[in-house]
What we know:
By secondary structure, the chain is α/β, with parallel strands linked by helices. It has one domain (4-212): Aldolase class I (TIM Barrel, Alpha-Beta Barrel), CATH 3.20.20.70. Helices cover 32% and strands 22% of the residues. It has seven helices and ten strands. It has helices at residues 13-22, 41-49, 66-75, 89-99, 115-122, 173-180, 200-212, and strands spanning 4-8, 26-31, 56-61, 80-83, 103-109, 127-132, 162-164, 184-187, 192-194, 197-198. The strands form two sheets. It has an eight-stranded parallel β-sheet with strand order 7-6-5-4-3-2-1-8. The chain has a two-stranded antiparallel sheet with strand order 9-10. Strand 9 (192-194) and strand 10 form a beta hairpin. It is globular, with a radius of gyration of 16 Å. The structure holds the ligand O=C(O)c1ccccc1N[C@@H]1O[C@H](COP(=O)(O)O)[C@@H](O)[C@H]1O.
Amino acid sequence: MDTRVKICGLTTSDAVSASVEAGAQYLGFVFFPKSPRNVDIATARALALDVPMGVAKVALVVDPSDEALERITGEVPIDMIQLHGKESLERVTEVRTRFGLPVMKAVGVSGPADLQALNAYGMVADQLLVDAKPPQGADLPGGNGVSFDWRLVSKRGWNAPWMLAGGLTQENVVQAIQMTGAKQIDLSSGVESAPGVKDPAKIQAFMNAIRAA
Ligand SMILES: O=C(O)c1ccccc1N[C@@H]1O[C@H](COP(=O)(O)O)[C@@H](O)[C@H]1O
């Protein structure tokens, strides 16, 4: 299966190496203090400098200010900004223009009404991240290890390339790809041994599951 994978929430060089060696095409660094996967700028910079050419480094941010984005993009050699908050269509356009980097906009899906947002953001973002909505009362807008009803996005396309996210694991990823037709997937907690702790064996097993499909 020729699926591109983003492994998100990397905090150590071991996790970066395991993801690169297993064949991930995108690596995500989380800049969100409430997350167990949060990294400071110095750590992210050191990790990103070791990523080989051809593997995209993604900065995940949640309703960021321009100042926060200036600090991140000024010090960390990133290739893409992932907006994972309540950013408006206008804000997506503004961030793309101001920072000169591709923007991936995350959209939470729990029912058919959410597909409108994907249509709209697909017109302004470079990529879409189609994720589950966070459970009621969750501290995090993503990274909660929950899936949504994949039939909602079965064989759908939008104006921008998209990644499927939300509760993906080595056990369910093949079915998720078969049901949705996703060509790109994104995951975080499904390859962890504890919140924020990536497990190299789970990363390899996840990639093996996709390749064997
Ligand atoms: O992972 C986080 O801590 C996080 C924090 C804030 C916003 C988004 C976050 N994660 C994103 O959510 C997807 C799905 O996560 P999971 O596989 O369900 O655990 C993850 O890949 C990140 O893009």
